[in-house]
Specification:
Elements (H helix, E strand, L loop, with lengths): L6 H9 L12 H11 L8 E4 L5 H9 L4 E4 L3 H10 L8 E2 L14 E7 L10 H11 E12 L13 H8 L3 E8 L11 E8 L1
Helix pairs in contact: 2-3
The structure holds S-adenosylmethionine.
């Protein structure tokens, strides 16, 4: 089997339609959060959807009027499909990079990075690297917002974790504004997700 750190692993998943993680729409916690920020956030803030896959969050935010929405995923075909399906979305905002390497390109920093089923897809030995990279990609006081699993899995990916583990992991890089059980997960994930809002320190 291909290495989870390599594009091929994920390309094979998409080619074989093994994409059970994909909800087909924005997850209810993220939809609620996006509606919440509408009232008090400028629509030109720079937003990154990390490990975006089919990037339902990106088109949702785009349709809400956010103009600086970026997507990163290292599988090019998934970004090509997104571009074809969403011709009004700026193709220059589709970043085909390895998340862990993207600071080496001229991508700038973001006000908000969205986490949805990406953290659970990376090699768990890279979690500190993930936290450091999120810190580097965010502007001062920028926010990492999303959903993390609060359970363990027999077959991985996805890789699980716990609130205690996440607190220790993010603490050197972020203030925790919210890290709490989701009340609005999709049914199969109910009781097994945490909503996070972390502020860069
Ligand atoms: C489990 S999928 C989640 C996709 C999407 N967020 C969703 O919820 O449908 C994980 C995604 O992360 C991408 N990915 C994994 N490792 C990556 C990396 N190092 N850099 C960029 N993308 C990566 C994969 O290609 C895949 O699209």
């Amino acid at each position: 089997m291909a290495d989870i750190n390599q594009v091929q692993f994920w390309q094979d998943r998409y080619d074989n339609a093994q994409t059970g993680w994909d909800l087909g729409v924005v997850s209810p916690p993220m939809r609620a959060y996006f509606h919440h920020i509408l009232s008090h956030v400028n629509k030109d803030i720079r937003i990154l959807i990390a490990g975006a896959g089919n990037a339902h969050e990106a088109i949702f935010l785009h349709e809400l009027g956010f103009s600086q929405v970026y997507v990163v995923d290292f599988v090019s075909s998934v970004l090509d499909n997104f571009a074809k399906a969403n011709p009004t979305f700026n193709p220059q905002h589709l970043l085909c990079h390895d998340f862990f390497e993207m600071h080496k390109f001229d991508v700038g920093q973001f006000d908000l990075v969205v986490e949805q089923a990406f953290f659970c897809a990376i090699d768990p030995t890279r979690r500190d690297e993930y936290a450091r990279q999120m810190h580097r990609l965010l502007k001062d006081k920028g926010q990492l917002v999303g959903v993390l699993f609060d359970c363990e899995f027999v077959n991985s990916p996805p890789f699980g974790g716990s609130l205690a583990e996440y607190r220790a992991l993010f603490e050197p890089y972020f203030d925790t504004d919210i890290m709490a059980g989701c009340y609005n997960s999709v049914k199969p994930r109910a009781g097994r997700e945490l909503f996070i809002r972390l502020i860069k320190v």
